[in-house]
User: What shape does this take?
Amino acid sequence: MTPTLATIFVPRDSGALSLGADRVAAAIAAEAARRAIAIELVRNGSRGLYWLEPMVEVATAGGARVAYGPVGSADVPSLFDAVFLTNDPAAHPLAQGPVEQIPYLARQRRMVFARMGVTDPLALDDYITHGGFRGLARALELSGAAIVAEITRANLRGRGGAAFPAGIKWKTTLEQADPVKYVVCNADEGDSGSFADRMLMEGDPFLLIEGLAIAGLAVGAVQGFIYLRSEYPHALRTLTAAIATARERGYLGSSVCGGGRAFDLEIVVGAGSYICGEETAMLESLEGKRGMVRFKPPVPAVAGLFGRPTVVNNVVTLASVPAILEHGGEAYNQLGIGRSRGTIPLQLAGNVARPGLVEAPFGLTLRELIHDFGGGTRSGRPLRAVQVGGPLGAYFPAAMLDLPIDYEAMAEAGGLLGHGGVVVFDDTVDLARMARYAMEFCALESCGKCTPCRIGSTRGAELLDRVIRARGDGANLQLLRELCDTMAAGSLCALGGLTPTPVLSALKHFPEDFGLAAAPT
Amino acid sequence: MDSSETWDKDAVAAIVAALKPAPGALMRILRRVQDELGWVPPPALPMIAHELNLSRAEVHGVATFYHDFRHAPPGRNVIRLCRAESCQALGAEALADHVRARLGVGFGETSADRAFTLEPVYCLGNCACSPAGVINGNPLGRLTPARFDDALERLLRR
Assistant: This one.
């Protein structure tokens, strides 16, 4: 048998697929066959360096993995020449050097995304070789209360947007006497500009399964649900296969790892509703109903899915749990600034030269993220605005880029960190139109339960149409401010309550787009 | 509803029978009907309501709440374009104008020859490769009018 000359990695991540990764993989297999070169082709997750996707990595015997990108299928013959015929594979025009040394990656602190792009997402042995299931092993030796204590010590806050301390949710559910409890993973990553959850589910699904199993052991739940948005069919396929493998190998089922405690998982797919990312609307949807937001209290930790105590956490939150158990809550708590502890996977998108995933301890500034990592705008035009935290997040001007990325600093600046999405705009953006879009989106996605959101968003979009037609009309702008005040103060949940954030921040920082005098810089 | 639109009653009945015992069965049933038939035929709703012992109003309410559930059959090819902020920052509006003109349909419409349905989507999680879209389930990134036309050509050649 011919010895394998190289292992070649081509991502299976849907972002890479959207740029032709499957065609590149097919071309590589065909080229290897044509040259009678024995290779192993691995479909890994994405490293998150999306401007280089499809990014192909080549590992020759004993050598480091060398990256090439962005690779098209037409580049494959020259890539083979460089790798297998010359002594200098780095001479290829698409060569990026050893992947771990690419500054974008080398300057990150990857904890949750440590395995991302390194492994074959569905190879369970790969997962174990790279440190998987160590957190679960430790959790199996601990009582529920001791697991919760580690999460509390870590100061882990919900990464889905609300930043609520996970330890408090878990403790509340643990203390309920009800014999039936649930764990629900919020995988309805609806915030535009966000893709960390998708990458994790496609690229390291066992990590989420491990986090959920630990949550189940902690609070005494035997059944978990993953509420997955329908826009993520690749994540659905990968997670479905990973859950089946985990079950076969005894990591899920009637006795997790033979420890005698049961936990199993089921995926439920949503149907294109943004509001179902709000935890109580999600529970309604899981119960088969319209995704209508519930009044709180009771909080889900006390009375959640089917009225039972339920822990609801986002994908990244749950995926942060295994490392916390493995290394201890205190080690996690050492990272970060202020009350934002640990690392945050930031998602850099929009008009930026190097979009992608940047995991770092809290405290990085927007400027470091956008300029040092992102390389400025893709168009080369001046950066004008940055929206942080999804469709309910504020628009900040270029003058505010020294803001540190943490929950409190963002709130103090009139915005929010949300799910960690950062979208960059150049100077062609019209903030009055973006404000109108915020209202339009709220109108499309409002569940309709409360009036300020249901009616306010539609009136807001109409009002902004008038503002755009007659910029500078003070009466319209005054009405807009009053409407925003009503929505912010009177809405039941964050959708209606926070839609004024992008609108008012646009008006405050970019008044010239609304026909007012420019803000002093 | 166009009376010429037929739907597979047996398929829906089989889905209902299979998923009826599941917790939160109604969503799962509608989801599966949508996935298998490509739409949720309004005349199927009374049957689902009867089987689940729910009111027709309740089933109608759920079926019309969620954007995914189509109330008419889609065209042979379904094209979805992201209209959210990151894609807007890189020309999604101009791309949308091009696609509408190219296909001769607006968002939420199916062409007269039933070849295309164009749908808006608010984030595909592919924001790092904006503007993003999907043709018949195949993700597309860094779309330009020219790249969209190439992808469409590949599709039509198949």
About this structure: Residues 3-65 of chain B form one domain. DSSP finds seven helices and five strands in chain B.
